[in-house]
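User: Second chain of the day. Same drill as before.
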Amino acid sequence: MINDFDRFFLHLPPLDKENDFFSFWDNSFSMLKKIPIEPIINLNDVKGTDKFHVYDTYFNGSGKYKVKGELHIPVNTRKPKVIIYIHDYNSPVIPAENHLDEELAYFFIQLRGHEYIFNQTILNNNTKNNNNKNKEERKSPGFIIENILEKDDFYIKDIFLDVFRSIDFLRLVKEIDCGSMAIIGKGLGAAAAVFASGYSDRIRTIVLDTPSFCYLDLSQNISRSDATNEINSFLTDNRSKTKAVKSNLTYFDAINHSDKIKIPILVIVGLKDTLSPPECVFALFNHMQCEKTVEVYPEEDNSAGGNNQLKKSIEWIKQYINN
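Assistant: Same format as last time:
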Protein backbone atom coordinates (compact mmCIF):
# COMPACT_ATOMS: atom_id res chain seq x y z
CA MET A 1 0.00 0.00 0.00
CA ILE A 2 2.94 2.33 0.65
CA ASN A 3 4.03 1.83 -2.95
CA ASP A 4 0.48 2.56 -4.12
CA PHE A 5 0.43 5.75 -2.07
CA ASP A 6 3.74 6.88 -3.53
CA ARG A 7 2.49 6.09 -7.04
CA PHE A 8 -0.56 8.28 -6.52
CA PHE A 9 1.17 11.02 -4.54
CA LEU A 10 4.04 11.70 -6.90
CA HIS A 11 2.14 13.81 -9.41
CA LEU A 12 3.09 17.41 -10.16
CA PRO A 13 2.15 18.00 -13.80
CA PRO A 14 3.02 21.35 -15.36
CA LEU A 15 0.30 23.95 -15.51
CA ASP A 16 -1.05 24.49 -19.01
CA LYS A 17 -2.58 27.95 -18.92
CA GLU A 18 -3.22 29.55 -22.29
CA ASN A 19 -1.66 32.97 -22.97
CA ASP A 20 -4.98 34.76 -22.45
CA PHE A 21 -5.88 32.83 -19.28
CA PHE A 22 -5.78 35.84 -16.98
CA SER A 23 -7.44 38.27 -19.41
CA PHE A 24 -10.19 35.71 -20.01
CA TRP A 25 -11.05 35.57 -16.34
CA ASP A 26 -10.63 39.33 -15.85
CA ASN A 27 -13.18 39.89 -18.61
CA SER A 28 -15.48 37.26 -17.11
CA PHE A 29 -15.45 39.01 -13.74
CA SER A 30 -16.06 42.38 -15.41
CA MET A 31 -19.14 40.99 -17.15
CA LEU A 32 -20.40 39.45 -13.91
CA LYS A 33 -20.10 42.77 -12.05
CA LYS A 34 -22.49 44.36 -14.54
CA ILE A 35 -25.26 41.96 -13.50
CA PRO A 36 -27.31 43.03 -10.46
CA ILE A 37 -27.57 40.33 -7.78
CA GLU A 38 -31.32 40.88 -7.19
CA PRO A 39 -31.53 38.59 -4.14
CA ILE A 40 -34.75 36.83 -3.13
CA ILE A 41 -34.92 35.16 0.29
CA ASN A 42 -38.16 33.45 1.34
CA LEU A 43 -38.71 31.64 4.63
CA ASN A 44 -39.90 28.06 4.07
CA ASP A 45 -41.92 27.01 7.11
CA VAL A 46 -42.47 23.53 5.71
CA LYS A 47 -38.76 22.69 5.51
CA GLY A 48 -37.84 24.48 8.74
CA THR A 49 -37.29 22.53 11.97
CA ASP A 50 -36.80 23.27 15.64
CA LYS A 51 -33.06 23.50 14.92
CA PHE A 52 -32.84 25.40 11.62
CA HIS A 53 -34.81 28.08 9.82
CA VAL A 54 -34.79 27.23 6.12
CA TYR A 55 -34.97 29.86 3.35
CA ASP A 56 -35.50 29.34 -0.37
CA THR A 57 -33.13 31.70 -2.13
CA TYR A 58 -32.54 33.08 -5.61
CA PHE A 59 -29.99 35.46 -7.11
CA ASN A 60 -28.64 36.40 -10.53
CA GLY A 61 -25.58 34.43 -11.49
CA SER A 62 -23.58 34.40 -14.69
CA GLY A 63 -25.61 35.48 -17.70
CA LYS A 64 -28.35 36.61 -15.30
CA TYR A 65 -29.33 32.98 -14.69
CA LYS A 66 -31.52 32.73 -11.58
CA VAL A 67 -29.41 30.58 -9.26
CA LYS A 68 -31.36 28.69 -6.61
CA GLY A 69 -30.35 27.39 -3.22
CA GLU A 70 -31.35 26.74 0.34
CA LEU A 71 -30.03 28.69 3.31
CA HIS A 72 -30.20 26.93 6.69
CA ILE A 73 -29.75 29.25 9.67
CA PRO A 74 -29.61 27.77 13.19
CA VAL A 75 -32.48 28.78 15.44
CA ASN A 76 -30.41 29.27 18.58
CA THR A 77 -27.26 30.93 17.21
CA ARG A 78 -27.16 34.65 16.60
CA LYS A 79 -25.29 35.85 13.49
CA PRO A 80 -23.61 32.51 12.72
CA LYS A 81 -20.71 32.08 10.34
CA VAL A 82 -21.65 30.31 7.12
CA ILE A 83 -20.44 27.34 5.09
CA ILE A 84 -21.20 27.15 1.37
CA TYR A 85 -21.82 23.54 0.30
CA ILE A 86 -21.36 22.72 -3.40
CA HIS A 87 -22.64 19.36 -4.57
CA ASP A 88 -21.11 17.20 -7.27
CA TYR A 89 -22.20 17.11 -10.89
CA ASN A 90 -25.42 15.17 -11.38
CA SER A 91 -25.53 14.42 -7.65
CA PRO A 92 -27.30 17.24 -5.82
CA VAL A 93 -27.62 16.67 -2.10
CA ILE A 94 -28.81 18.46 1.00
CA PRO A 95 -27.11 16.79 3.95
CA ALA A 96 -29.35 15.42 6.68
CA GLU A 97 -29.79 17.81 9.59
CA ASN A 98 -28.10 15.49 12.07
CA HIS A 99 -24.84 15.91 10.13
CA LEU A 100 -24.83 19.69 10.69
CA ASP A 101 -23.34 21.71 13.54
CA GLU A 102 -25.98 24.04 15.01
CA GLU A 103 -23.46 26.82 15.61
CA LEU A 104 -23.09 27.46 11.87
CA ALA A 105 -25.30 28.39 8.92
CA TYR A 106 -25.20 26.51 5.62
CA PHE A 107 -25.88 27.56 2.07
CA PHE A 108 -26.64 24.68 -0.29
CA ILE A 109 -26.26 26.07 -3.77
CA GLN A 110 -27.88 24.32 -6.72
CA LEU A 111 -25.65 23.92 -9.72
CA ARG A 112 -27.61 25.26 -12.68
CA GLY A 113 -29.73 22.68 -14.43
CA HIS A 114 -29.99 20.48 -11.35
CA GLU A 115 -33.15 21.95 -9.89
CA TYR A 116 -35.35 19.12 -11.12
CA ILE A 117 -33.85 16.67 -8.63
CA PHE A 118 -32.30 18.93 -5.99
CA ASN A 119 -35.20 18.95 -3.58
CA GLN A 120 -35.69 15.20 -3.84
CA THR A 121 -32.18 14.22 -2.82
CA ILE A 122 -30.54 14.09 0.63
CA LEU A 123 -27.35 12.68 2.06
CA ASN A 124 -28.48 9.41 3.66
CA ASN A 125 -27.20 6.21 5.16
CA ASN A 126 -27.71 3.91 2.16
CA THR A 127 -25.39 0.95 1.90
CA LYS A 128 -22.54 1.03 -0.59
CA ASN A 129 -24.38 -1.45 -2.82
CA ASN A 130 -27.49 0.74 -2.89
CA ASN A 131 -25.40 3.79 -3.70
CA ASN A 132 -23.79 1.96 -6.63
CA LYS A 133 -27.20 0.85 -7.88
CA ASN A 134 -28.52 4.41 -7.78
CA LYS A 135 -25.50 5.67 -9.69
CA GLU A 136 -26.02 3.06 -12.39
CA GLU A 137 -29.68 4.02 -12.82
CA ARG A 138 -29.08 7.78 -12.89
CA LYS A 139 -28.76 9.29 -16.35
CA SER A 140 -26.10 11.81 -17.23
CA PRO A 141 -27.82 15.14 -18.06
CA GLY A 142 -25.45 16.39 -20.75
CA PHE A 143 -24.79 19.83 -19.26
CA ILE A 144 -21.00 19.51 -19.39
CA ILE A 145 -20.87 19.61 -23.18
CA GLU A 146 -23.13 22.68 -23.49
CA ASN A 147 -21.12 25.22 -25.51
CA ILE A 148 -17.93 23.24 -24.90
CA LEU A 149 -16.45 24.75 -28.07
CA GLU A 150 -17.18 28.30 -26.87
CA LYS A 151 -15.31 28.94 -23.65
CA ASP A 152 -17.11 32.25 -23.08
CA ASP A 153 -20.43 30.42 -22.88
CA PHE A 154 -19.24 27.10 -21.46
CA TYR A 155 -21.30 25.47 -18.72
CA ILE A 156 -18.36 25.13 -16.31
CA LYS A 157 -17.55 28.81 -16.63
CA ASP A 158 -21.08 29.65 -15.55
CA ILE A 159 -20.87 27.18 -12.64
CA PHE A 160 -17.65 28.73 -11.38
CA LEU A 161 -19.01 32.27 -11.61
CA ASP A 162 -22.32 31.30 -9.98
CA VAL A 163 -20.46 29.94 -6.96
CA PHE A 164 -18.26 33.04 -6.79
CA ARG A 165 -21.37 35.25 -6.98
CA SER A 166 -22.97 33.29 -4.09
CA ILE A 167 -20.36 34.81 -1.76
CA ASP A 168 -21.60 38.33 -2.57
CA PHE A 169 -25.20 37.16 -2.32
CA LEU A 170 -24.70 35.84 1.21
CA ARG A 171 -23.19 39.17 2.29
CA LEU A 172 -26.64 40.67 1.76
CA VAL A 173 -28.25 38.35 4.33
CA LYS A 174 -28.30 40.28 7.60
CA GLU A 175 -28.99 37.20 9.76
CA ILE A 176 -25.55 35.68 9.13
CA ASP A 177 -21.93 36.77 9.62
CA CYS A 178 -20.06 36.73 6.32
CA GLY A 179 -16.86 38.24 7.63
CA SER A 180 -15.44 34.73 7.73
CA MET A 181 -16.77 31.99 5.47
CA ALA A 182 -15.87 28.47 4.37
CA ILE A 183 -16.66 26.19 1.45
CA ILE A 184 -17.13 22.45 1.21
CA GLY A 185 -17.08 21.14 -2.35
CA LYS A 186 -17.70 17.60 -3.59
CA GLY A 187 -16.30 16.44 -6.94
CA LEU A 188 -16.95 19.19 -9.49
CA GLY A 189 -18.14 21.28 -6.55
CA ALA A 190 -14.61 21.07 -5.16
CA ALA A 191 -13.19 22.48 -8.39
CA ALA A 192 -15.70 25.35 -8.12
CA ALA A 193 -14.60 25.84 -4.50
CA VAL A 194 -10.97 26.22 -5.61
CA PHE A 195 -11.99 28.82 -8.15
CA ALA A 196 -14.30 30.85 -5.90
CA SER A 197 -12.02 30.87 -2.88
CA GLY A 198 -9.02 31.78 -5.02
CA TYR A 199 -10.65 35.03 -6.12
CA SER A 200 -12.37 36.02 -2.87
CA ASP A 201 -10.90 37.36 0.35
CA ARG A 202 -13.95 36.25 2.35
CA ILE A 203 -13.18 32.54 2.41
CA ARG A 204 -11.07 31.39 5.36
CA THR A 205 -10.79 27.69 4.53
CA ILE A 206 -12.07 25.07 2.10
CA VAL A 207 -12.69 21.33 2.18
CA LEU A 208 -12.17 19.54 -1.14
CA ASP A 209 -14.05 16.25 -0.93
CA THR A 210 -12.77 13.90 -3.67
CA PRO A 211 -12.21 16.82 -6.09
CA SER A 212 -12.67 16.31 -9.81
CA PHE A 213 -12.10 18.44 -12.92
CA CYS A 214 -8.43 18.63 -12.05
CA TYR A 215 -5.43 17.43 -14.07
CA LEU A 216 -7.75 16.96 -17.03
CA ASP A 217 -5.00 15.65 -19.31
CA LEU A 218 -4.99 12.51 -17.19
CA SER A 219 -8.49 12.38 -15.73
CA GLN A 220 -10.11 12.43 -19.18
CA ASN A 221 -8.34 9.14 -19.83
CA ILE A 222 -9.03 7.31 -16.56
CA SER A 223 -12.03 8.82 -14.77
CA ARG A 224 -15.42 7.13 -15.05
CA SER A 225 -17.42 10.15 -13.89
CA ASP A 226 -20.49 11.45 -15.70
CA ALA A 227 -18.67 14.66 -16.64
CA THR A 228 -15.73 12.75 -18.13
CA ASN A 229 -18.00 10.38 -20.03
CA GLU A 230 -19.98 13.25 -21.53
CA ILE A 231 -16.83 14.98 -22.80
CA ASN A 232 -15.33 11.78 -24.15
CA SER A 233 -18.58 10.88 -25.93
CA PHE A 234 -18.61 14.31 -27.52
CA LEU A 235 -15.02 13.88 -28.69
CA THR A 236 -15.79 10.45 -30.12
CA ASP A 237 -18.45 12.05 -32.30
CA ASN A 238 -16.37 15.16 -33.06
CA ARG A 239 -12.77 14.00 -33.39
CA SER A 240 -11.77 17.06 -35.39
CA LYS A 241 -12.67 19.23 -32.38
CA THR A 242 -10.35 17.46 -29.93
CA LYS A 243 -7.65 20.14 -29.92
CA ALA A 244 -10.17 22.97 -29.45
CA VAL A 245 -11.92 21.17 -26.59
CA LYS A 246 -8.66 20.39 -24.79
CA SER A 247 -7.57 24.00 -25.13
CA ASN A 248 -10.87 25.31 -23.77
CA LEU A 249 -10.80 22.92 -20.81
CA THR A 250 -7.50 24.34 -19.56
CA TYR A 251 -9.30 27.52 -18.44
CA PHE A 252 -11.38 25.43 -16.04
CA ASP A 253 -8.92 22.80 -14.86
CA ALA A 254 -8.69 23.27 -11.08
CA ILE A 255 -4.91 22.88 -11.04
CA ASN A 256 -4.62 26.03 -13.16
CA HIS A 257 -6.34 27.96 -10.35
CA SER A 258 -4.43 26.26 -7.53
CA ASP A 259 -1.79 29.00 -7.28
CA LYS A 260 -4.48 31.44 -6.13
CA ILE A 261 -5.16 29.47 -2.93
CA LYS A 262 -3.49 30.95 0.15
CA ILE A 263 -5.85 29.65 2.84
CA PRO A 264 -5.81 26.33 4.75
CA ILE A 265 -7.34 23.41 2.86
CA LEU A 266 -8.44 19.89 3.70
CA VAL A 267 -8.48 17.36 0.86
CA ILE A 268 -10.26 14.00 1.05
CA VAL A 269 -9.21 11.18 -1.27
CA GLY A 270 -10.05 7.50 -1.65
CA LEU A 271 -7.33 5.45 -3.31
CA LYS A 272 -9.95 3.24 -4.98
CA ASP A 273 -11.92 6.18 -6.39
CA THR A 274 -12.66 5.77 -10.10
CA LEU A 275 -14.67 9.01 -10.39
CA SER A 276 -12.08 11.36 -8.89
CA PRO A 277 -8.86 9.43 -9.57
CA PRO A 278 -6.35 9.80 -6.72
CA GLU A 279 -3.55 10.61 -9.19
CA CYS A 280 -5.50 13.71 -10.21
CA VAL A 281 -6.47 14.66 -6.66
CA PHE A 282 -2.83 14.55 -5.57
CA ALA A 283 -1.80 16.58 -8.62
CA LEU A 284 -4.11 19.33 -7.36
CA PHE A 285 -2.97 18.90 -3.76
CA ASN A 286 0.71 19.07 -4.71
CA HIS A 287 0.21 22.32 -6.61
CA MET A 288 -1.35 24.04 -3.58
CA GLN A 289 1.10 26.43 -1.95
CA CYS A 290 -0.72 26.87 1.35
CA GLU A 291 -1.35 25.18 4.69
CA LYS A 292 -2.79 21.87 3.56
CA THR A 293 -3.95 18.54 4.97
CA VAL A 294 -4.97 15.39 3.13
CA GLU A 295 -7.09 12.56 4.54
CA VAL A 296 -6.32 9.35 2.66
CA TYR A 297 -8.67 6.36 2.66
CA PRO A 298 -6.71 3.46 1.12
CA GLU A 299 -9.65 1.04 0.81
CA GLU A 300 -12.42 3.50 -0.12
CA ASP A 301 -13.79 5.05 -3.29
CA ASN A 302 -15.71 8.25 -4.07
CA SER A 303 -17.59 7.95 -0.77
CA ALA A 304 -14.30 8.17 1.16
CA GLY A 305 -14.90 8.87 4.82
CA GLY A 306 -18.50 7.70 4.70
CA ASN A 307 -21.36 9.30 6.55
CA ASN A 308 -19.13 10.80 9.24
CA GLN A 309 -16.94 12.73 6.82
CA LEU A 310 -19.17 15.80 6.73
CA LYS A 311 -19.12 16.07 10.52
CA LYS A 312 -15.34 15.73 10.52
CA SER A 313 -15.04 18.37 7.80
CA ILE A 314 -17.22 20.83 9.73
CA GLU A 315 -15.15 20.32 12.87
CA TRP A 316 -12.02 20.99 10.84
CA ILE A 317 -13.55 24.16 9.43
CA LYS A 318 -14.53 25.52 12.83
CA GLN A 319 -10.93 25.89 13.95
CA TYR A 320 -10.40 28.44 11.15
CA ILE A 321 -13.77 30.07 10.58
CA ASN A 322 -14.21 31.11 14.21
CA ASN A 323 -10.80 32.82 14.53
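The first helix runs from residue 2 to 9.

User: Great, on to the next one.
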